[in-house]
Amino acid sequence: MRIDRMEVYYVVFPLIYPWRTAYGADPDVHTILVRLQSGNKSGWGETTPLYAPCYSPESSVGVYHTIREYFAPQIVGEDFPTARHIQERLKHFKGNYFSKAGIENAWWLLKAHMEEKPLHQLLGGTRKAVESGTAHGIKENLDMLMGAIQKGIDDGYKRTKLKFAKGWGLEMLKPVRANFPRHTFHIDCNSSFTLDDLPMFKEVDKLGLAMIEQPLPYDDLIEHAKLQAQMQTPICLDESIKSVRDMRLAVELKSCRYVNIKPPRVGGLQASVDIHNLAKENGIPAWVGGMLESSLGKGVNVELATLDNFVYPNDIGPSSRGIKEDITEPKLEFPGKEKIFKPSTVPGIPFLPSPAKLEKFTRHKFVLEK
Ligand SMILES: [Mg+2]
């Protein structure tokens, strides 16, 4: 598959409310879209590490420039029969997983259009339905959080994720558990604690959570293993798993009992499938996480979540749950009352950027053609 042309868009679109976590607040989505063209076929990819390098060392601005300066000249005019050929071509560039994912995910949708198959078929997914959980960022006060949790439960979400940070920790979690004694909760710490917080995690351990997501630093596997050995509650790794190698080490060290897989964080869909398979072989259940993405990235995540070891409700929300004005047509929404999405029935995915929205929200764009 020769790549004749690459277009890259730096797009900013608004959220309904700012998304608050342990590392700050995002009032809008800064995302990078990549369009690859081969002959008369094309495929779109989306990758967003968030505006600032707070979730990982990558930022939206950095991803845009890394693709333009370093990656695009390696890809355009070259032939890539498989995604592994793209990985191989970009291998000498260290890290920069989000930047690599933007290109590789566009390759997958290009491939899907060439073969006229839904994306999940290329990935090997078999599930007919993909369940979604809900997630709440840090709110202004506990009353607002309790109301939001109750609404989520009333709406039919079977599990709720709570962002958990210093100042919004046990003082939030204990009353939540008291109010909702039987509901399935997990917390996401976004790397904001250390092993010195073990006494606090021992308190969390008594609250019957489904898992604790990424309690310790974003680049750690060893201290997570030490913490996991002292906790009943499973640890789920997010930020710490950036590659298949990280997953292999996490298995060996026993750093986690769950893994959250996000295609942009791990360099794309091929690594996502490989990490999924490695986790499955080692009895570690997985679920698909999400960044602040448009329906393009969300739609790709739904396709990935059809693989059979994604057994916990995923972090894939409908567009209307947080996005004020999405950039695709159509947008990802639940097809019925249940909190489940159905995989694509068209080649690739149905959610492609609308030209009018691209016109409205693109801040920077470049094109390379050979
Ligand atoms: Mg997380």
Report on the architecture of this protein:
The chain starts with a strand and ends with a strand. With 370 residues, the chain is α/β, with parallel strands linked by helices. The chain has two domains: 5-116 and 353-369, Enolase-like, N-terminal domain (Enolase-like, domain 1); 121-341, Enolase-like C-terminal domain (TIM Barrel, Alpha-Beta Barrel). The strands form four sheets. It has a seven-stranded parallel beta sheet with strand order 5-6-7-8-9-10-11. The chain has helices at residues 60-75, 83-90, 97-115, 119-123, 142-155, 170-179, 198-204, 222-229, 244-253, 269-281, 295-304, 355-361, and strands spanning 5-21, 24-38, 41-47, 130-131, 134-136, 159-163, 184-188, 212-213, 235-237, 258-261, 286-288, 328-329, 340-341, 352-353, 362-369. Helix 2 runs antiparallel to helix 3 (97-115) and helix 9 packs parallel to helix 10 (269-281). 34% of the residues lie in helices and 22% in strands. It contains twelve helices and 15 strands. 48% of the residues are buried. The chain binds magnesium ion (MG). Magnesium ion binds next to loops. Residues 188, 190, 213-214, 238, 260, 289 line the site of magnesium ion.
Topology (elements, then pairings):
Layout: E1 5-21, E2 24-38, E3 41-47, H1 60-75, H2 83-90, H3 97-115, H4 119-123, E4 130-131, E5 134-136, H5 142-155, E6 159-163, H6 170-179, E7 184-188, H7 198-204, E8 212-213, H8 222-229, E9 235-237, H9 244-253, E10 258-261, H10 269-281, E11 286-288, H11 295-304, E12 328-329, E13 340-341, E14 352-353, H12 355-361, E15 362-369
The chain binds magnesium ion.
Magnesium ion (MG) is lined by residues 188, 190, 213-214, 238, 260, 289.
